[in-house]
Amino acid sequence: MPAQGRDRQFMRLASGLSRSRADWRSAVSAARRLRTLSRMRLRCIE
């Protein structure tokens, strides 16, 4: 496999990884927000 093709494939893989990482980060932030909201709600009930 030529180095140029390998670099191109790696760049495509890296861009896909960064995109999925951004999706994962947004999902984690949403879960954290939900967790803090539920904790505040529990504190209000107590």
TrEMBL record:
Q: What name appears for this protein in its UniProt entry? A: Uncharacterized protein
